[in-house]
Prior knowledge:
Two copies of one chain form a homodimer. Chain A is α+β, with helices and mostly antiparallel strands and about 425 residues long. Chain A has two domains: about 1-95, CATH 2.40.50.140; about 120-415, Bira Bifunctional Protein, Domain 2 (BirA Bifunctional Protein, domain 2). Chain A has helices spanning about 55-60, 110-115, 120, 125-145, 185-195, 230-255, 255-260, 265-270, 280-290, 300-310, 365-375, 380-390, 400-410, and strands at about 15-30, 30-40, 45-50, 70-80, 85-95, 150, 160, 170-175, 175-180, 200-205, 220-230, 275-280, 315-320, 340-345, 355-360, 395-400. In chain A, β2 (about 30-40) and β3 (about 45-50) form a beta hairpin. The two termini of chain A are about 40 Å apart. The model of chain A has no long low-confidence stretch (mean pLDDT about 95).
Amino acid sequence: MKKIWIADLKEHIGQTIQLSGWVYSTRSSGKIKFLLLRDGTGLCQCVYFRGECEEQSFNNFEQLQQECMVEISGTVRLEPRSPGGVEISAKKLSLISSSNAYPITPKEHGTDFLMNHRHLWLRSKRQVAIMRVRHEIVRAIRDFFDHRGFTLIDSPIFTPSACEGTSTLFETKYFEEKAFLSQSGQLYMEAAAAALGKVYCFGPTFRAEKSKTRRHLIEFWMVEPEVAFNDLYDNMELAEQFVEYIVQRVLKNKSEELKSLERNTSLLEKIKAPFPRLHYQEAVEIIKKENPDFVDGNDFGGTDETIVSSKFETPVFVHHYPSAIKAFYMKEDPKESGSSLSCDLLATEGYGEIIGGGQREEDLSILLQKIKEHQLREEDFAWYMDLRKYGSFPHSGFGLGVERTVGWICGLPHVRETIAFPRLYGRNYP
Amino acid sequence: MKKIWIADLKEHIGQTIQLSGWVYSTRSSGKIKFLLLRDGTGLCQCVYFRGECEEQSFNNFEQLQQECMVEISGTVRLEPRSPGGVEISAKKLSLISSSNAYPITPKEHGTDFLMNHRHLWLRSKRQVAIMRVRHEIVRAIRDFFDHRGFTLIDSPIFTPSACEGTSTLFETKYFEEKAFLSQSGQLYMEAAAAALGKVYCFGPTFRAEKSKTRRHLIEFWMVEPEVAFNDLYDNMELAEQFVEYIVQRVLKNKSEELKSLERNTSLLEKIKAPFPRLHYQEAVEIIKKENPDFVDGNDFGGTDETIVSSKFETPVFVHHYPSAIKAFYMKEDPKESGSSLSCDLLATEGYGEIIGGGQREEDLSILLQKIKEHQLREEDFAWYMDLRKYGSFPHSGFGLGVERTVGWICGLPHVRETIAFPRLYGRNYP
Lengths: 430, 430
């Protein structure tokens, strides 16, 4: 008898099959016992009639506990009222391994308890739904760029120098030298864009931020496209098409999961490009009406972002941030001194910045000046300067944080549920 | 006039278009000048006739150097003899930025020189071809699992304990604690397999090996599937279908790149499942004939792997390695004391092990015993033990190293060319 997966049961209607899985729940009603079985690909109701199944199997129900592992066999039949649309008329039930006092029960547990049992918590229906949506988001991200002729270039995690200031860097010994864990693959993508035109990297990045907010992870995945010859406006166009594509694809392919997460999908259906674009000064005007203490020229805090984004039903771009609050490589607008060709994208419903990016400075002498102003060491950027010495080219790109995007699309209150094994300030377990 | 990419020129036959790119080479023949233009997506020949193009543009050729950035405009026409099958009857040429004494010339350079200029070396035709094959391999890997109902689960890079011995671990300070950089996501995938049935992780992994061989990187990408209810033989079946799929897909979609790498593709065409399976003892017999010093019970060195794999035209499995030389979590064969339910896959042409994996020990008491024998600390594996306490289940998986696979499929002499910015013992730059 072929062992199959619950997700594939519909291809086996009328056949006698065998399933392996874990006990999700059981109930009894006189001569009938019901087993809801979970195998990771789905849930399936198995029905045991006394007299029509093995007597021993019927009696085995006494020993069943939440999450013990069993094997069952029976016949598949269509049953529209059951989860997955099928049901098993079961004949056999074998207990393979026990599960005494499984720690996660249907009752409420505290956050710390659940996080300490993350390896088991992942089995719950809600966490499974989030992981499936996350997977679809990752696939959508890759397909979007792959279908547009981008080349994936994996950027290194070990980097020789501290490129954006040292305060949030993880340091490690790299044999006899020091090395730092990557905060961004961008500088490497700029080199790769000169080789392959349209590139992206997609991997884990690290920020040693001592903050416990609902938006921050220590280790998070970021996708960073970089495109030769693109300016700020090309960059925003790419970013808005990208975000629309991700959201609409999740709506199309993971509607069951969004439903089980009780996500209000009507809000997501409105995420269609083009997105509104605000100059930094326009955004400041909006913020000042509700937060009079905001100081013109500063970066936005979480509350400020929410004030701006609450005015729109789609994500909104803010561009032309002051150069003083952006990284050294961000190009200053030649027509607007002190303002950078930067853009951030703020998500709806208060989920904050999900994209940061802009046009890069391609002039060697201006870049050297910026490196001085930012008190960085010129020698750390020797190879990066080469990109301006040999065929310097206009180019732009951005980074999208995967976990914030998962949190936004799933409607989660905290970023800790957006990745299987989150790393937070004060948490590196399991 | 719309700016387009060289890769898309065939959709614009007869149209007047504009291209941005870098000078790959130029040549002159009286009243005609040829510019071979590179934009990262392809190469395109641009032909300038004196009298039919702008006089200034014709004269601009004097200033062109390898890798300077230019903009051109002209009319696209079919030309089967040109690279890409099209040619531009060019009218205009503008020099955007210079490239004085570009360091990488068509002459031979030493390895160290090229590695120090990796950010520029990537622009060469050969490196571009390798990066495109690598991208196709990554896509094939993901598509294979995605199309079979696997869920991607990103495993953490920061891990709290040293799971496979501490000799090749990178350590970092994680705020007030110590943390280690992941060598494998497997233990986390075992937890995830209980939640989602069929899972895989795919990310960078780290080994602090002080070895300078052509097969070792300090930082390399690994894909690790894990499947609930699979035994050793299911695992080998999955692995051989997987490797066949990757190789055949690269042959199909990247034949141009393999050709430019001068790869003997007839050898790759033979990579079809099923692959031969040798018991460890059978492999030892083969090795001993050519390496009489080999000690029965030892792990294979690179030379030993080559002796075995040279006997076959497809990759070959070796299974049932002695338990003593495998990790603590590898299940011992209940029918064959001292032998593990492990399997490695050795690539053809001396490229060595590309896959390692097997069936995991699911019995709690045996696992505790193994942890003691391997002198590991039981408390480091508290969460991992939970997977055996609550519904323990048979399961198997494997890891495939991406860079070795890229090297094998491209036929490269050294793993350093398989990733954009390789990290080797003694190299963390650029």
